[in-house]
Structure formats: C-alpha cells, structure tokens
C-alpha cells in the first residue's frame, strides 16, 4: 500500500495533498482569454505539483480547424507564458500525452459525437476511468445548447455508479433573478445538483478562505464580532484598469452585476455568517444562505447607493480615456463602472451595523479588502488633545494583492506626554509562510476533479444574491445616469456623500 492510500498517515498529517483520481477535463471555449491565461496554466501547475494522476487528460473543444498537435502547441505556449510554477519537461511530456482536441460548433451533432468517441478512447488509452468534467468557459447564452448536446450524445450520464460526470460554469449566473432561474433549470435538467460546479474564482483565494480560519479558529475575535462592538463593515474591490477589450461583455452588464452580485456578496456572507456545524458543503451553504436571506436594502436607494463612470484622467502616470470614449462603447451608454451600496442584515448579531460594498474600475489602485471597523471606546480618560489622531480600531483582511491581515489600534507615542496615535500590526502571507499560495483556479479545478464542492455556490445562493441586486438595478434603470469620476481617483462624489450621511467615510486602502 502506498503512502497516498494509507488512511492512518492521512489522519495524522492534514498537510498531505489531495490528489485527483483518473479523470479528464473538457474545456469548451479553449480559444478565450480565460482558458489561455488561467485554466490551462492552472492544469499544468496542478500537474507540476503532483496533484494530477497519470490517468488525466485535457480535451479542448472549439470552432477551429486544429489538429491535436495544434492545440497541444497552444497549451504549451499558454503554460510557458502564464504558469505559476517553473516549466518542467518531464511534467509537460506526461501532460501532453493526454491532450486531445475536437473541432466543432456547439450546434454540431457530429462534433459532439466525435467528442464522445474521444473521451471513450481516453478511458481506454489514458485510463481516465469514465470520469469527465465539462468546463463551460463560454457565454451563458450557449449553456443551453451545450448541455443538451452533452445529454444527447450520452456524455452527461456516467455508465455506472462508480463513474462521474460534472459540469463547471463560469459567472455570470444570469443577468437577473429570472434569467438565473432559467439558467439553473437548464443545467439542472441535465446534471444532478451535486454535479454542478458554479465557479466564483474569488472563493478559491487563500485569503477568502482565511476569513473562516480567522473567525472560527480564534477565540480572540468572536466575542467582538457583533453589533455591540462593530460600527460598520466595508468591502471593497477596486481595479486600476479600465475595461480593456471587454466592451462586448461589459457594456450592459456593469460593475454591480459583474462584481457585487457574486464576489462581494459572497465575501459579505463569509464575514457575517454564524459558525457552521462543520465545513461540510451543506452546513457551510446553510449559514451563507441565512445571511443572504436576511439582507435588507436601504429604504432610500437615492441616498444609499451610488454609481459612476470613469472619465478621462491618469493611471500610473499615463493619460487614459474615459469609459464613453472606449472602443465599442456607445456615447450614451448608462452602464456603470463604479457601484456602491449600503446593505443591512436583519439578525441579532448584525442589527444596526451597515455593510458598505463598493467596486470600480480606473480607481487609485488595485485592491480587494474587507475592513471591519469597530466602535470607539465608550469612555476615553484622556485629554482631548491626546487622542486627536486616534481613529477607530479596525481589522482589515487584504484579499489582494498583498494578501494578509492588518489590525489598527491606538498606542501611546513615546515621550513624557500621554499621546495616543493609531498603529498597525500586520500579518502577510509572503513572510509568514514558506508555502506559496496556489492560484485560485488551481484550487477550484482540483476541487471539481475531487468532487469537493464547499467553495462553489449552489443555485439558492445565486438566486438570493439576485434578489438583493435586482431592485437596485431596476431603480438605477429608471433614475438618471451614472456620475462621471476622474480616472485614478476613488470614485464619484455621490459615493462619499453616501457614507457622509451616516457620519462615516470610506477607507483609502
């Protein structure tokens, strides 16, 4: 018996890697940026770390007249350019033996029949064991036809109970509640619920998972993680780039649908949820769903939401165009590139604590963070001049790019006088651990192959998120246009005014 199969050793050492069993990953949309920059490099990095078995195969499906060797060259080039781990000829040789390509259109029956024959041959030649995951890296409008083709060709149904078939879909999961329900109905008509993996790559980030470790592995924070001590919570995802070449996708979607509905509401759920009974997927989802179902919108959306479009300005010392001047954007577009909203949670733990969510493009810097801001001490036995520079205590979870946690608190300034000033204690992954954090897609693809779904939202979470966002989108559609804000700043004036009405202000990350 090898060490990998030894249950006693597995129980002793939780650091042992989880290695996927025999399987294949079929990627639809392999010619897109996501596949080239993220998916194919992640597969290689998993192989390079020894987390994929010899019986693994990578199959590409696209409307290109490529032979398998052409696709293999594309994978090779993508890996060379974007892989996180060093290139290894030995790893590449093993991985390349299982690479296949099937050309065809999504509506082409013959192409899917050829795909079915291809995966059958891989079962025989590579030992993939009848286990196949289908990654739909394609626009949601094609999910219906691809899922039906997988069903028609027999690819969606395993031949026996020891085999599995799974489907992976990328956000956006619809563009509103109704479309999300229609999309869920399509996919769940073909695949069982536990075989559907909805990818939100933010949930694969080490720091996002560390929110659960920070909260539930430490007695230090739990007593103050509630409305008695927390003044408010800010969740920020800021980007310093514009839309790039994504005009066709982004215009009409906007910042709120693109980021708040999924990434930021998932972060809110992890920060605000009660301790789950276990980290079993069903227990974790139950607590997240409770939080999302308790979210309450502000009574006045005019005062407690804000949206904007970036105007011309400067980014990194370089002049940049405004959103309405970008290629492919209509000059009268009302799509927001900045969105902010106040949400409240009607639970005993969080009653009266506002959660402020914001996201935007062309902002001051690239940063994603969760800031838990605490109330001021009820009594300060100091002269007022001694605490002039003292702010609120805060715990800041940095999701990217400098992953870690910062705690801000007051400390005496050295000297004979009693003067208190803000200081910080900082934990950073880079200098606290020798282990390098895997890229999010590595963790998520491995979880798909292992059938481990705790980081993947089920349709209930998706629908609850749309129930929160839909009224805001409908209000914006009927009221005015996004406010212009200068590129390189921190968003529109209305967003600052939104917090000022509550006697608060945004953090400058």
Total strand segments: 18
CATH architecture of the largest domain: 2-Layer Sandwich
CATH fold type of the largest domain: Dihydrodipicolinate Reductase, domain 2
What is the rounded Rg? 24 Å
> Major β-sheet, in short?
10 strands, mixed
Q: Give the percentage of residues in beta strands.
A: 15-25%
The residue fraction in helices comes out at 25-40%
Overall outline: globular
Helix tally?
16
User: In CATH, what is the class of the largest domain?
Assistant: Alpha Beta
- Going by helix content, strand content and strand pairing, the class is alpha/beta
- How many domain regions? 2
Q: State the separation between the terminal residues, measured CA to CA.
A: 52 Å
Residue-averaged pLDDT: 87
CATH superfamily of the largest domain: Dihydrodipicolinate Reductase, domain 2
Low-confidence stretches: 1-15
Write the SSE topology:
Elements: H1 7-12, E1 23-28, H2 33-48, E2 56-62, H3 68-82, H4 89-96, E3 99-103, H5 109-125, E4 132-136, H6 143-152, E5 165-170, H7 177-190, E6 196-199, H8 206-216, E7 230-238, H9 247-250, H10 254-272, H11 281-294, E8 295-296, H12 301-304, E9 305-311, E10 313-315, E11 318-320, E12 338-345, E13 355-360, E14 367-374, E15 394-400, E16 404-412, E17 420-428, H13 429-432, H14 440-450, H15 459-478, E18 483-486, H16 493-500
Parallel strand pairs: 1-2, 1-4, 2-3, 4-5, 5-6, 7-13, 9-18
Antiparallel strand pairs: 7-14, 8-12, 9-12, 10-11, 12-13, 14-15, 15-16, 16-17
Helix pairs in contact: 2-3, 2-14, 6-7, 7-15, 10-11, 10-15, 11-15
Care to describe what's here?
With 509 residues, the protein is α/β, with parallel strands linked by helices. The chain folds into 2 domains: 168 residues, 3-Layer(aba) Sandwich (Rossmann fold); 298 residues, Dihydrodipicolinate Reductase, domain 2 (2-Layer Sandwich), CATH 3.30.360.10. 36% of the residues lie in helices and 21% in strands. Strands 7, 8, 9, 12, 13, 14, 15, 16, 17 and 18 form a 10-stranded mixed sheet that branches. A hairpin with a 7-residue loop joins strand 16 and strand 17. Helix 10 packs across helix 11 and helix 10 packs across helix 15. The longest helix is centred in the last third of the chain and has 20 residues. The chain is globular. The N and C termini lie far apart (52 Å). The N terminus is likely disordered.
